[in-house]
Amino acid sequence: MKTTQLREYTIKPGQLDRFADAWRNGVRPLREQQGFVIEGAWTIPSEEHFVWIVSYDGPEGWDAANKAYYESPERKAMDPDPASFISAQRTAFIDRV
Fold first, then answer.
1. Helix (H, G, I), strand (E, B) or coil at 63
2. Three-state DSSP class for 53?
3. What pairing do the DSSP bridges indicate for beta strands 36-44 and 49-56?
4. By three-state DSSP, how is residue 64 classified?
């Protein structure tokens, strides 16, 4: 079953471009390599926000795949760590209407 998640991040002041680069060059390719689909990603520069939608439809399910992503050596080795740019975040599972 396909699971889709909306992820909203507030980025530390002045770091939105650096975060977007780290996400584009690290998070996105690794997520895709591990079977996730990036439905889209956007910045809201006036609010220092980064918003993206990611889905997964693999055999082990979202929780196992997401855990494997965060525990992978590739994710742990990301430098800079994309999480270091985030000051607040909100995630929610969403359904298409």
1. helix
2. strand
3. antiparallel
4. helix
Strand, helix or coil for residue 79:
coil
1 within 8 A of 95, measured Cβ to Cβ: no
Per-residue pLDDT of the chain (97 residues; tens, 9 = 90+): 899 999 999 999 999 999 999 999 999 999 999 999 999 999 999 999 999 999 999 999 999 999 999 999 999 999 999 999 999 999 999 999 9
Count of C-beta atoms within a 10 Å radius of residue 91: 11
pTM over 0.90: yes
**In angstroms, rounded to a whole number, what is the distance separating the alpha carbons of residues 82 and 41?**
15
Quote the strand ranges of the chain, DSSP E: 3-11, 36-44, 49-56, 86-94
CA distances from 39 to 42, 53, 59, 68, 76 (A): 11, 5, 19, 20, 24
Distance (Å, whole) CA 92 – CA 7: 7
